[in-house]
Amino acid sequence: MNAKRFLLKLRKTFIPPLFSVLTLIFVLLVSVKFIYLLESLDPPPAPTNQPFVKHNISCKAIYDMDPVEVGKSLIIRRKTAVEDKDERLINFTRNCPVFTKIRGYDDLCVSEEEKDFPIAYSLVVHKNAWMVERLLRAVYSPNNIYCIHYDQKSSAQFVAAMEGLSRCLPNVFVSSKLEAVFYASISRLKADLNCLSDLLTSEVKWKYVINLCGQDFPLKSNMELVSELRRLKGSSMLETSRPSELKKQRFLYRYELQDASFEYKKLPVKTQQAKTPPPHNIEMFIGNAYFVLSREFIQFMNSSPVVRDFLTWSEDTYSPDEHFWATLVRLPGVPGEVPRSQPDITDLMSKTRLVKWQYLEENLYPPCSGQHVRSVCIFGAAELHWLLNYGHWFANKFDPNVDPVLLQCLEEKLEEKQKLFQKGRSLTCPRG
């Protein structure tokens, strides 16, 4: 009996751990084999005539949240990312016919609806030339017009790459006036204003203007955007809310631009000097830096003494781009006015820009599958389906060094959607 009890006790204490260890070893062996198989399926580095690597992955399966394909994207992401150098884009744009052919700029068809409804873009950018090019290509249509404002502090290579894009694409130009852009200062707002002024003098009679930064990406094709913009019927779309007591501090006191010892170089610092109330009894609203505004709104803004006085008053406030547009759109009588009596329009209500904040994840939206930078999610491939179905037109942030698969799949899905929405319509296509 004692021997029997001893064997039973041994079985209970020893065999389960042994089974767990064997199971773990089996899982690890399968994982290693799976990783080896996936890595062997991934293509070699792109040849010199291709801008970047196209990974061997099914974007349809990623979109459908297939666990194997999503897992494969995670393995691709773990590999050491090699950032595409700005010099490579400089070299590509030295031969414009080759560049436009390889990137597909000269192979885009335009519907009559798109011809009748050109869109203008203001791109305020400062680094990662290839990311800017991929953003430009994603929103590109031959009948639209694009202004690029690069930071005066940008590297010589980045500047040359942006100049190369403007040289190769007839409807892309560099802003005639450039700013040295500092975080949360008036310079960020002035960069957009410089582009808006140039866009008004363009021969392209665009209907709406959209501003973007270098880590934005569209979630709608050009054909879809035209359809959505038509529905606005001249109204604006942007975030505009009543300020909290904390946000009021941004414009109740003067701020001075001072040297900073980290990446921003200079930052607006609060002083103890109180500001006078806004001119013309303007009621303050807050939002973000991004907008969808009609041509009529920009024309009004460009010639209004009220707007001019408000801009001057805003120069020594903190992050004026986050109250300037949100306030102007509430001015009585402005084209596309949002009445002051209307409730707040939050970032989730406005379709202008979808941003995922870390402290709101699992409450307002699912967790970030990429990584966080200063509480903002840089999206991962597992969010492809959510991004394309949430309803917004653009999202921020994207980075090919965080997740190259997501950008590749977004590009693929946008091309699919453009062709789908153009199907059966009268198209003007390049000859040949």
Low-confidence sequence ranges: 6-48
The succession of helices and strands, N to C, reads HHHHHEHEHEHEHEEHHEEEHHHEEEHEHE
> Rounded to an integer, what's the Rg over CA atoms?
26 Å
What fold name goes in the CATH topology slot of the largest domain?
Spore Coat Polysaccharide Biosynthesis Protein SpsA, Chain A
In total, how many domains does the architecture comprise?
Answer: 2
Choose one word for the global shape: globular
| Overall CATH architecture of the largest domain | Alpha-Beta Complex
Helix content: 40-55%
Our measurement of the CA-to-CA distance between the termini, rounded to an integer number of angstroms, reads: 92 Å
The total count of helices amounts to 16
Write out the strand line-up for the largest beta sheet, numbering strands in chain order: 4-3-2-5-9
The CATH class name of the largest domain reads Alpha Beta
Strand-residue proportion: 5-15%
* Total beta strand runs: 14
Mean pLDDT: 90
**Main β-sheet description:** 5 strands, mixed
- Provide the structure class: alpha/beta
What does this structure look like?
- This is Glucosaminyl (N-acetyl) transferase 4.
- Pathway: Protein modification; protein glycosylation.
- The chain has 432 residues and is α/β, with parallel strands linked by helices.
- It has helices at residues 2-41, 59-63, 67-78, 86-92, 96-102, 112-115, 129-139, 156-168, 186-200, 222-232, 245-252, 295-303, 305-314, 321-328, 384-389, 404-422; strands at residues 110-111, 119-125, 145-150, 172-174, 208-213, 216-218, 253-259, 266-274, 292-294, 354-355, 371-373, 376-378, 394-396, 427-428.
- The strands form 5 sheets. A 5-stranded mixed sheet has the order 4-3-2-5-9, sandwiched between helices.
- The longest helix has 40 residues, at 2-41.
- It is globular and about 60 Å long.
- Residues 6-48 have low confidence and may be disordered.
